[in-house]
Amino acid sequence: MKIEKEPISGQYGKFKIDGIDFRIYWEEAGQGIPLVCLHTAGSDGRQYRALLNDKKILKKFRVIVFDMPWHGKSSPPENAKVGNYKLSTDFYISQIMSFINGLELVKPVVMGCSIGGRIILHLAINFPDKFRALIGLQSAGHLDPYYDISWLHRQDVHGGEVCGGIAYGLMAPTSPESDKFETMWHYMQGGPGIFKGDLFFYKFDGNIGNEIKKIDNSKCPIYLLTGEYDYSATPEETKSLADTIGIEMIKMKNVGHFPMSENPKEFLKYLHPVLNKIS
């Protein structure tokens, strides 16, 4: 029986980030405007497989998804040790810009979810002329504490299961169970302490505060889309963010914190019109 192959190709490459060589893995498909997608904390680029297979998007966009260092198929740096990983704002920006420059992408669109939805705000402040547009999924300027992240890396707790449990709770009850399970499974495969280290950026270092007022939407269009069931980056938080920037936010029905993987069919209904505007 002949299998149906997907249009996705995967590659490895060495990128210099803050003077250190990192072996980074990425997947891509399509042709046209570069669309770089940023995965959520503690997971990897598999979250965007639906976009990488969407024929409508691939006609106009070259969709590119990389695994952050320490995540998925990307490697930690040499001489790394378990328990020392903490994602800072500066390092997050450096890895994104190093990847874009390494692939020689000109004026790409960057779309990120959760921590990716936060970092696009920093990109808009610091590098507005580098991007054709920025898309924030589940974006919020800060995170109100609602759980103890020490549970994410303890010797007496199964890290994969507790990370998966937190991820599952952030998804909508209306999302298909099979897609929710796969999204949770990605979290259950993460390295020890990596989800917790990413949340250092999300909960503390990446809080944007009054800096958000520096964003000029005329220099780089920004689009904000948030699922109605998310209690991490709530629709109300995104609405406040959008009002400060002076743009409209899109509230997505029937999805939670991981729209692109927990309910891709529903998510694409909202994404297609945004990409049409950009293209």
Give a quick rundown of the structure.
This protein has helices at 49-52, 55-58, 89-102, 115-126, 159-169, 177-188, 194-205, 235-245, 259-262, 264-278; strands at residues 9-17, 20-29, 33-38, 61-66, 109-113, 133-137, 222-227, 249-252.
Report on the architecture of this protein:
- With 279 residues, the chain is α/β, with parallel strands linked by helices.
- The protein has one domain: Rossmann fold.
- Helix content is 35%, strand content 18%.
- An 8-stranded mixed β-sheet has the order 1-2-4-3-5-6-7-8, with helices on both faces.
- The longest helix has 15 residues, at 264-278.
- It is globular, with a radius of gyration of 17 Å.
- 47% of the residues are buried.
Write the SSE topology:
Layout: E1 9-17, E2 20-29, E3 33-38, H1 49-52, H2 55-58, E4 61-66, H3 89-102, E5 109-113, H4 115-126, E6 133-137, H5 159-169, H6 177-188, H7 194-205, E7 222-227, H8 235-245, E8 249-252, H9 259-262, H10 264-278
Parallel strand pairs: 3-4, 3-5, 5-6, 6-7, 7-8
Antiparallel strand pairs: 1-2, 2-4
Report the biggest beta sheet as strand number plus sense, adding barrel if it closes.
8 strands, mixed
Task: Please identify, by name, the CATH architecture.
Answer: 3-Layer(aba) Sandwich
The average pLDDT value, as a whole number, equals: 94
Portion in helices? 25-40%
CATH homologous superfamily caption: Alpha/Beta hydrolase fold, catalytic domain
Q: Give the count of structural domains.
A: 1
**CATH domain fold name:** Rossmann fold
CATH class: Alpha Beta
CA radius of gyration is 17 Å
Side by side, the strands of the main sheet go 1-2-4-3-5-6-7-8
Q: Strand portion, in percent?
A: 15-25%
Instruction: Using the alpha-carbon principal axes, give the shape.
Output: globular
Question: What sequence of helices (H) and strands (E) makes up the elements?
Answer: EEEHHEHEHEHHHEHEHH
Based on secondary structure, the structural category is alpha/beta
Count of β-strands? 8
